[in-house]
Amino acid sequence: MISSGGQAKWYLKENPVKLNGEVEDRRGKKIHPGDVLNLAGEEYEFISE
């Protein structure tokens, strides 16, 4: 996906990213178990082990 903070900054400027249904443009946003991320037309749900 995105391997560095610099890439994330560029990606977030050019592409919509949603976290839990809301547009997110902060590259340092914390992700928690149960969060759902929509990125590049794909949906990812974060779970804990």
From TrEMBL:
<dbReference type="Pfam" id="PF13275">
    <property type="entry name" value="S4_2"/>
</dbReference>
<dbReference type="InterPro" id="IPR036986">
    <property type="entry name" value="S4_RNA-bd_sf"/>
</dbReference>
<dbReference type="GO" id="GO:0003723">
    <property type="term" value="F:RNA binding"/>
</dbReference>
<protein>
    <recommendedName>
        <fullName>RNA-binding protein</fullName>
    </recommendedName>
</protein>
<keyword id="KW-0694">RNA-binding</keyword>
